[in-house]
Amino acid sequence: MGSLLPDLDTRKSYMSKKWPHLSKFISKRTKHRGFTHSLLFLLILSELLKLIVLIGDKNIILICSAYGMFLGYASHILLDIFTYEGVDLFFPLGFNFKLSRLKTSSKGERYVNKVLKFISINLIFYNLYYLLNIKI
Hints:
Layout: H1 14-18, H2 20-29, H3 39-55, H4 60-81, H5 107-132
Helix pairs in contact: 3-4
């Protein structure tokens, strides 16, 4: 859920279709890859997640959910930095930050996606192997 949340600023995203009123409110006030893709919003989100964890009396489910939400959100912003459009990382300065020229939905993006999936799957298996101490 965290990785999908930054795109609430566009009405075409999955999360915008799930929460149309919130998406409409946000998209009228900011451009796509603007405020919701900034370090400022990430800081606000982290403080909100800290508050939820504290109110939940350090419940392990809330802690794991908060970390997942934060990491998903941060990874979305990081990956958008590598696209041609970039992000407004230092909102409200208006500076568009990008590190490469990958186009969204291009062959290059699909290749990067496959590589990241491969790495993720291998990390999951490595962690399972390590945690369960499986002898192969």
